[in-house]
Write a structure and sequence with these properties.
alpha+beta; seven-stranded antiparallel beta sheet; about 20% strand
Length: about 425
Amino acid sequence: MDPMSLERLDDPLAGAREATCTMLTQRRPQFSLPQPFYNDARLFALDMQEIFAKEWLFAGMSCEIPAKGNYLTLEVGDNPLILVRGADGTIHGFHNVCRHRGSRLCVKDKGKVAKLVCPYHQWTYELDGRLLFAGSDMGENFDLGQYGLKPIHVRTAGGFIFVSLADQPPVIDDFLTTLEHYLEPYDMANTKVAVESSIVEQANWKLVLENNRECYHCNGAHPELLNTLLEFDDSDDPRATPAYKAQVARKQADWDAEQVPWQLKRFGKRNRLTRTPLLEGTVSMTMDGKPGCRKLMGRLQSPDMGSLRILHLPNSWNHFMGDHAVVFRVLPLGPQQTLVTTKWLVHADAVAGVDYDPEQLRKVWDATNDQDRRLAEENQRGINSKAYEPGPYSATYEFGVIDFIDWYSERMQENLGHTAPHLRVVQS
């Protein structure tokens, strides 16, 4: 076999890497991406290698694993992962792969264990990943210390758990510090998941994110959401009306009085936090705009907190209100298939059927998620056509989508070892 053949075996995506960088370098700014980015298996493999295996990902909430031995699992592409609370309260992250013959250790989404025991041959690991038992059949010279679980990077802040599979993850400290500050009023250690849902969308993960990053489609698609949501992103939004700006000023004065942060914070294009009012006369994302939970979160004294919107690329957006929060996680399953998980959080002491009705709590976002699923799937079907070509985004209504696609393009090129060019608007 010649050296070139060996090289191709070593990296079967070499050609796709070069083509991807060329397409991103030549793409037209403020336009959607070329078709392969939305439906090609090789581009999807690169997304998983260069974005989802190298960036910080939202994995779950720390309240989901509150005590020693509590764990949750997730899969990032072909990589099963486990997060487990250790004896000292630390959250550890590992590849959910036994060091014996590679079986998954934990097969349930969530649970509680004393030790991590492989169901195949009962190799047993401490909660910090150390191998404790492999049986006498491995021989007297077998070194347990050489076969601990392989760790992943884990960071927590504001009740969120982030993971990275990279050897050297990107710097995220400033965002985590701000996230902790903005969620301090919610006392996230004393929250719980009241409701959880997962849906599979037959669409590329980028289409799911693009749909989320604009409300251009909301008037025609989301009647339940628009019972309460104001589509303006902040008071600097070019669409913001004088009445909205006056409402923002009044609410910000109220939030200042409660010592609740509201200022818009950006961390490049990856992260942003901003608190925005809901529709006048409503206080929560429920069907009638009234609180979905009688017991407010943390130290909050009023349900009228608007929505604290938190964005984390590439896979999460979130809404925190006075009475409950809704967090979203996106995990790609294939070139045209994406898992979207939604969790509704309430105060840990809130009682179902007394303080909140789980079915009522989830109605708005169940409807919205299903509507968005249909939109993304129709978007995917159209993009698969030979008639598709990149189309222009609206700088007024779709600036969030432009930011997302720019971020994706820049990170992909950097992670592939190419320098992303400075993007500028080209007048046609």
